[in-house]
Amino acid sequence: MRAGGGEQGLIDGEKRGRKASRETRRQQLIEATIDSLAKRGYSDTTLADVAVGAGLSRGIVNFHFESKENLLIATLQFLSEEYSDNWQAALEKAGPSVAGRLWALVHADFSRKICTKRKIAAWGAFWGEAKSRPTYQALCGARDVKYRETVIALCTELKAEGGYDYQPEPIALSLCAMLEGLWLRLLMGDGTTREKALEAATAFVAAVFPRHLTPQGPRPDQAPAAQRNRP
């Protein structure tokens, strides 16, 4: 017999509650894994550590992930998706200006949402294991390719607009390598701060694209070449 409207509503509400609870607990465990990776490193992180950090039982960890490897893969996937979503959202918000989009992309790398000590430390733990774990490389590979292609496309457009004497791909590679290097500085704790790293990154793009950018941001008078050359 089909449940009545009120009864069915209660059943649906309970199902949603259980689903929300599962998602909440999974995220608690992922966040606790990030904390443990930052504190203990990859090898010394255990399911027991994660359970204690999340305030949940070891059984809950086993129920949701079954093994440490599954938990670590889920954590890396979360970090990768968060990073990708962050820079893509920044590009969408920036609007059509190519200079503004590149500026937004650089700033996105130092967003307070993703550029934190604990998350950078967790990334560092995964970087150390990536060479020997093809699963980790495959998990982030497609997103890395999309990011590089986006940077190359922006550099190509800026070259066309500004008449710069460079090849887009080497410049894009230099920019990506510099951003990764600044994250490594933050990971090593050599005194580099998020603010200093962002300042260095914006100084770099302003030096490479002076007709479009200053260290303070996109030039207000910059426009595509076709518009500048109009009589």
TrEMBL record:
Residues 1-24 are annotated as: Disordered. Signal peptide: none annotated. SUPFAM superfamilies: Homeodomain-like, Tetracyclin repressor-like, C-terminal domain. The lineage of its organism: Bacteria, Pseudomonadati, Pseudomonadota, Alphaproteobacteria, Hyphomicrobiales. Keywords: DNA-binding, Repressor, Transcription, Transcription regulation. Residues 46-65 bind DNA. Pfam families: TetR_C_6, TetR_N. This is TetR family transcriptional regulator C-terminal domain-containing protein. PROSITE patterns: HTH_TETR_1 (PS01081), HTH_TETR_2 (PS50977). Residues 23-83 form the HTH tetR-type domain. Residues 12-24 have a biased composition (Basic and acidic residues).
